[in-house]
Amino acid sequence: MANENEGERFDRLPATEAERVVEGRPTRPAVVAWFEERLGIDSAVFEPYSFWERGSGKIWAFRGEVESPVEIQGLGMTALRTRGEHWKPTLEAVQRFGAHATKNCVELTAEQARRFFAGQDQELDWEGDWGYLIVMHEIAGEQEPLGVGLYTYGELKSMVPKGRQREL
Length: 168
Known about the structure:
InterPro entries: DUF7122. The protein has 2 domains: 10-99; 104-164, Roll (Archaeosine Trna-guanine Transglycosylase, Chain: A, domain 4), CATH 2.30.130.60. The chain is 16% helix and 30% strand. The chain contains 3 helices and 10 strands; from the N terminus they run βαββββαβαββββ. The model has no long low-confidence stretch (mean pLDDT 90).
């Protein structure tokens, strides 16, 4: 494994800091701990998954095993962006793992959910933490994760990617 990030190669996240060869690369325990501390998703949920970095700070989750490094275009799903000041979960990770979350989940009404999916920011009175949240809405009697929102200063910003926004 090379000691730098490469955009065309997946490298497995190291199991410990001592095994890290790329400066700034998170460890698997750090990624799992982030999901547990920020979103309340139990670490056991991630036991069947390996975590990989492709490029700089783009973390992918893969249910399965392959040798590291591997030069392919996709491996599992993008799960987390780690190179900014605040780590950000992806829409795909929230929709896959968000049902296990017990923290930093904001529930929206039907009208609020429509605005969220359309990519609209909206004022929201919420008493929870600021930062990236899991946006939830009741569907068929169950709270379901819709995606990622960013909550600051009484406003919920939709993080639904432009190409996936919909008018419902």
